[in-house]
Design goal:
Length: about 260
């Protein structure tokens, strides 16, 4: 499989996912359709699907224009996947872990309700190469997580440790925003002696695009995936990992004000 990150708006990511065997393509959260269609035309791939992670306008807002352009071009309609009725143009409702195909690629939607109640992450496996990727929208970022707009810390803990953390360590993570430097800056205030964190901070300084990372990498420096570590628990003065997660999220919410 081939994955092309597309920077959009101020700090968003859309992605083009291509099955190199069949040249079938999907776009994930296509916020700037013209830019995306221009890139797809250069690849020779055929766009068939839209994978929408959640209904927020900066992820789903491009669906209407993209579907409209395909209708006007008299090409076959696009399959718009998601799990929230608030997603524009949705016509395929994803059930949790109900697999489907993009060409020869195996796609597994993972329901991850917290940032929004209908949030979905899309786990992709290429059977030919065993390469794995997950599109995490606003659930998991490089060195961070999304805000709990329609859920709470217990919901996010379940997602992080019973869904995402169960994926193989070599799974590539493609998130919905370029928040890496801000996330790492916050993480360094929590674990300043973490060598993996220090190395990631040094690495990202001259990188305009910092995706992807991997599940295994995130376990080493993402504080929200480290709430079971005693060092993190000592920072917030709590031992219950759900309470630690809640405290860290509150600290991150206020971090920009510091």
């Amino acid at each position: 499989m081939k994955i092309i990150p597309i920077q959009a708006l101020e700090n968003n990511y859309s992605y083009i996912l291509i099955d190199e065997k069949t040249k079938e393509a999907a776009v994930i959260d296509p916020m700037e359709p013209i830019k995306i269609l221009n890139v797809i035309s250069q690849t020779g791939a055929k766009l068939s699907s839209v994978f929408t992670t959640h209904h927020h306008w900066d992820h789903a807002g491009g669906n209407i224009e993209l579907v409209g352009k395909y209708f006007l071009s008299k090409k076959p309609g696009l399959a718009v996947y998601g799990a929230d009725a608030r997603i524009p143009e949705i016509n395929y409702v994803c059930k949790d872990r109900e697999e489907f195909k993009l060409g020869s690629l195996d796609i597994t939607p993972l329901h991850t309700p917290c940032h929004t109640k209908g949030h979905v992450c899309y786990y992709v496996v290429d059977p030919a190469t065993n390469e794995k990727a997950v599109f995490t929208g606003d659930t998991l970022f490089v060195a961070g997580i999304g805000k709990f707009f329609e859920g709470d810390a217990r919901d996010m803990y379940r997602i992080l440790f019973h869904v995402i953390n169960k994926l193989p360590d070599d799974t590539w993570i493609y998130c919905g925003h370029e928040y890496t430097r801000d996330n790492l800056k916050f993480a360094l205030t929590i674990e300043p002696q973490n060598e993996a964190l220090q190395a990631k901070w040094a690495w990202c300084q001259d990188k305009p695009i910092t995706v992807p990372s991997t599940i295994g990498q995130e376990k080493m420096y993402n504080p929200f995936l480290r709430v079971n570590e005693q060092s993190l628990q000592m920072v917030v003065g709590k031992s219950d990992p759900v309470e630690v997660l809640h405290s860290l999220r509150e600290m991150k919410n206020n971090f920009r004000l510091m």
